[in-house]
TrEMBL record:
Catalytic activity: Exonucleolytic cleavage in either 5'- to 3'- or 3'- to 5'-direction to yield nucleoside 5'-phosphates
Gene Ontology MF term list: exodeoxyribonuclease VII activity; nucleic acid binding
Protein name in the entry: Exodeoxyribonuclease 7 large subunit
Family stated for the protein in its record: Belongs to the XseA family.
Self-association and partners: Heterooligomer composed of large and small subunits.
Keyword Nuclease listed: yes
Pfam families according to UniProt: Exonuc_VII_L, tRNA_anti_2
Superkingdom classification of source: Bacteria
InterPro entries on file: Exonuc_VII_L, Exonuc_VII_lsu_C, OB-fold_nuc-bd_dom
Domain OB-fold nucleic acid binding: 17-109
Length: 456
């Protein structure tokens, strides 16, 4: 406790305000008692305008006030009533303004519901591990069932809903009811027996297993393991329509299809008669149109074949007419005389001669051009002869042979073939090739006078 809020009496005693005391007690209670499940009987239940719940839970020896605020109460699965046995998950605290100990409720359930729900989860996990709920083993519902079976209590309101829906949607489909209790001791065994009987008789194409809503205890017969295995082993597709949309049972998971309500289950298994009649009318109209078009095509084909079909007498008459035409054409072709043909030939010959060109003038022109060409060739040849003679004379004047004939010689290095131009290249022992007017000779220099370079 905060000592700053306390005061001291004249004798030195500490004085504690009531609000501080209640606050300290509330804090101690909240630390000492964690969230706990508490069971009891409901009394003095009140729903405030704010949405909060106020009530008490009691047993034979004591009672405790409770409050459940709107944020928690709106998620409760049911509204408790006077005398209900419930279990609450609450925090022990104190309402400080009045100094009253109370329970701040966070969750609420009916007595025994927690144990039943745990048993439900265990059985669900076991059967799911065995593959009873696999989607691959579930079968599709028949589109047009010949008969529909319903397993439920004869006194159940769900039976009336199902029969009303089936009579409205599919009055042409017979319905067979397999009566069995849907709650209480032994009800699960009787439901299983009816399901086995329906499979043994094989008189329906689909089975609806249904009942109305209720608490988890009321629906517990549909959480029976034997019933779930019988549903999974059924040779006839099973639709489960148990409770309301928020209710789930083991039978829902084992069935081939789960419907949120019994009425929805009836709608799933029954084809709507009005839609069937409408579809039948549409198909009848389509068939009539198709048949009409087929008859029109066949009639058109018959007319075409009739036009192609010719009687033998008419065909012979056509052949005789054709032969007469050919005979006339043959006679006309043989009656033409040779004179007519010769006259046509003469006319063609005359036209050819008139169109034949006169080549004498062109021949004279060609001969003149030939003479001019020969004369041009002769003059060109003479010019080329004179030019070649001039070039030959110039070449004769510049020929090295004429230089050699005048007494000159050319010295070449015997190894490289290069011309020797400097006296310094003449060394003793060097081999040279000497070109003269009448031939060449290889020589080796034995001695070269130093004055040789001076002479040059």
């Amino acid at each position: 406790m905060n000592s700053d809020r306390f005061s001291s009496a004249p004798g030195g005693d500490v004085v504690v305000p009531v609000s501080a005391l209640n606050r300290a007690i509330a804090s101690m209670l909240e630390r000492s008692f964690p969230l706990t499940w508490i069971s009891g009987e409901v009394s003095n239940f009140t729903r405030a305008a704010s949405g909060h719940w106020y009530f008490s839970i009691k047993d034979a020896q004591a009672q405790m006030r409770c409050v459940m605020f709107r944020g928690r109460a709106q998620y409760a699965e049911f509204t408790p009533r006077e005398g209900d046995r419930i279990e609450v998950r609450a925090l022990v605290t104190m309402y400080e303004p009045r100094g009253e100990v109370q329970l701040n409720v966070e969750a609420i359930r009916r007595t025994g519901q927690g144990r039943l729900f745990e048993a439900f989860l265990r059985l669900k996990a076991q059967l799911e591990a065995e593959g009873l709920f696999d989607a691959g083993r579930k079968r599709a519902l028949p589109t047009h069932p010949r008969a529909i079976g319903v397993i439920t209590s004869m006194q159940a309101a769900a039976l009336r809903d199902v029969l009303t829906t089936l009579a409205r949607r599919a009055p042409h489909v017979p319905v067979i009811v397999y009566p069995a209790p849907v709650q209480g001791a032994g009800s699960a065994e009787k439901l299983t027996a009816m399901l086995d009987a329906a499979n043994a008789r094989a008189e329906v194409d689909v089975i609806v297993l249904c009942r109305g809503g209720g608490s988890i205890e009321d629906l517990w017969s549909f959480n029976d393991e034997t019933l779930a295995r019988a549903i999974a082993a059924s040779a006839i597709p099973v639709v489960s329509g148990v409770g309301h949309e928020t209710d789930f049972t083991i039978a829902d998971f084992a069935a081939d299809v789960r419907a949120p309500t019994p009425t929805a289950a009836a709608e799933l298994v029954s084809p709507q008669r009005a839609l069937l009649l409408r579809e039948l009318d549409q198909r009848h109209a389509a068939l009539a149109r198709g048949f009409g078009r087929l008859m029109e095509r066949r009639a058109q084909q018959l007319d075409w074949l009739a036009r192609r079909l010719v009687s033998p007498g008419e065909r012979l008459a056509q052949q005789r007419t054709h032969l007469r035409q050919l005979a006339i054409r043959l006679a006309s072709a043989g009656s033409r005389t040779t004179a007519q043909a010769r006259a046509q030939f003469n006319i063609a010959q005359m036209r050819w001669r008139r169109m034949r060109p006169d080549a004498s003038a062109q021949r004279v022109q060609v001969e003149s051009l030939a003479r001019r060409l020969d004369s041009a060739f002769a003059r060109g040849r003479e010019r080329e002869t004179v030019r070649v003679a001039g070039l030959a004379a110039r070449l004769e004047v510049l020929s090295p042979q004429r230089t050699f004939e005048r007494g000159y010689a050319a010295l070449l290095d015997a190894q490289s073939g290069a011309a020797v131009r400097s006296p310094g290249a003449l060394k003793p022992g060097k081999r040279l090739t000497v070109h003269l007017a009448q031939g060449s000779a290889d020589i080796a220099l034995a001695d070269v006078q130093s004055r040789l370079s001076e002479d040059f």
